[in-house]
Amino acid sequence: MTKKQKVIIVGAGIVGASIAYNLSKENQDVTLVESHSKAGCGVTSNSFAWINPSGRVPDNFQHLYDGSLAEYHVLEKEIPELKVDWNGSLSWGIPVNSHKSYIEKITRQQVSDLEPHLREYPKEALYAFKEGAVDPNILTNLLVKKAQENGVNILFDTKVTKIKKEDAKVVGVHTSKGFIESDVIVLATGTAIPEFVSLLVLIFLLSHHLLLLFV
Ligand SMILES: Cc1cc2nc3c(=O)[nH]c(=O)nc-3n(C[C@H](O)[C@H](O)[C@H](O)COP(=O)(O)OP(=O)(O)OC[C@H]3O[C@@H](n4cnc5c(N)ncnc54)[C@H](O)[C@@H]3O)c2cc1C
Hints:
By secondary structure, this protein is an alpha/beta fold. It has 5 helices and 12 strands. It has a 4-stranded parallel β-sheet, with helices on one face. Strands 4-6-5 form a 3-stranded antiparallel β-sheet. Flavin-adenine dinucleotide (FAD) binds next to α1.
């Protein structure tokens, strides 16, 4: 039997919550660490909630947008409590760079059927029929709840202060509540990523510098 990996996920925004949920299905030893007292308190709480697989995307990234859209449909099946509104979106009077397979041109009458309470109607509009919306806080908290039910250890009110390295290997994190050992650290700290990345770059630069000194 292969040994379970000790995985620490830092940050319980929508990204950390999603990683925790998906890893919880893989029978690993996972801990999710969040500095706030609950999940989804960072940028996630300010999201516009739009599941938007179109937009200005280079062709070679389009598969990621397609994949994320497909994943939401999978997630809806896995978590029946999750409610996604697949109502699409309407645009007019602005340039739309959506992939053509995601939009159709619709008439004033069709716009009115979809949105009966507008004050003024355009002659025509672009309907992005595959798009949806989801409450990011509800989704994030659901993912954390499901991860916890699947055995993930959740630590709220716990701030990761430092990543500990031994030789060339990351061995754990120092937190406001003590040290946690780990084989793998996933940084899902949103806008706080640079604090940790600069630390790793610094460690890398220092090791590189030492290497240069001793070679
Ligand atoms: C106004 C606005 C509208 C948006 N609209 C959309 C939209 O319609 N559709 C869309 O897909 N995206 C949208 N986005 C983008 C989307 O909200 C973000 O990409 C997403 O929420 C990022 O999630 P995250 O988990 O990476 O970051 P966050 O939600 O910021 O989570 C990071 C977590 O890490 C925790 N943390 C940080 N440092 C530490 C530490 N040292 N120790 C422990 N925990 C730590 C924080 O407390 C936080 O909970 C929007 C963003 C904004 C600002």
